[in-house]
Design a protein that fits this description.
The chain has 7 helices and 7 strands, in the order βαααββββββαααα. It is an alpha+beta fold. The two termini are about 25 Å apart.
């Protein structure tokens, strides 16, 4: 793989399922059955939280497990909705990610964009959670996926672990302004732009 420059679009991954958080599983399952057989198989191959063997007689239950583990909250693009694509869920997590994902309702795709320059043969990682949280909260949220993150921010033995945590505390204070702008409750201001630029630049270092 060639080096990937900062801000490059790495992947456009179309949603194969989209459902409301409170939607009945049977309705979601009916839409799942309308997918091509190959797509259904690929969906059911995605990682789940437990070690139970997949049972053809429990396809609805298994689909729910897949959605719970791999579904993406579509946020302000489609409030209250969860989307599932086939390739983004296969990216590994890091609390120091070199890429980020967001949903574009117009294209119907999850876009993966480089947060920093990515070196040749470097693994592309995203954060499954809000990665500016303190270490203890991150580990608690990540327990849903049944693994303990050992990235340079989480592993206290890492030389940069303390620096990462301090920087996260500073960056997280910038987020409220941006979130208010995104949800439309506040105008775009020079302060908001500075917050966004600071986060963009810091993402290359965190």
């Amino acid at each position: 793989m060639a080096p990937i420059p900062y801000a490059t679009t790495i992947m456009l991954d179309p949603l194969v399922l989209n459902h409301k958080k409170d939607e009945e599983l049977l309705l979601v399952y009916c839409r799942f059955l309308s997918l091509a057989s190959f797509t259904q198989e690929e969906v059911l191959k995605l990682h789940v939280h437990h070690d139970r063997r997949y049972d053809l007689n429990l396809r609805q239950t298994h689909l729910k497990d897949v959605l719970d583990c791999n579904g993406l909250d579509l946020g302000v693009s489609d409030p209250g909705s969860i989307g599932l694509s086939l390739h983004v869920p296969r990216l590994n997590h890091s609390c120091v990610p070199n890429a980020e994902g967001y949903y574009d309702k117009k294209s119907g795709c999850v876009t993966i964009r480089a947060l920093t320059d990515i070196r040749t043969h470097e693994e592309i990682t995203i954060s499954y959670i809000y990665h500016l949280l303190p270490r203890a909260q991150r580990q608690e949220l990540l327990s849903k996926w049944r693994f303990v993150c050992q990235c340079s921010a989480c592993d206290v033995r890492h030389l940069n672990s303390v620096v990462h945590e301090k920087r996260r505390g500073s960056l997280s204070s910038l987020q409220p302004d941006l979130l208010q702008y995104v949800d439309g409750s506040a105008p775009l201001t020079p302060a908001t732009l500075r917050s966004r630029l600071t986060l963009e630049l810091a993402a290359k270092k965190v």
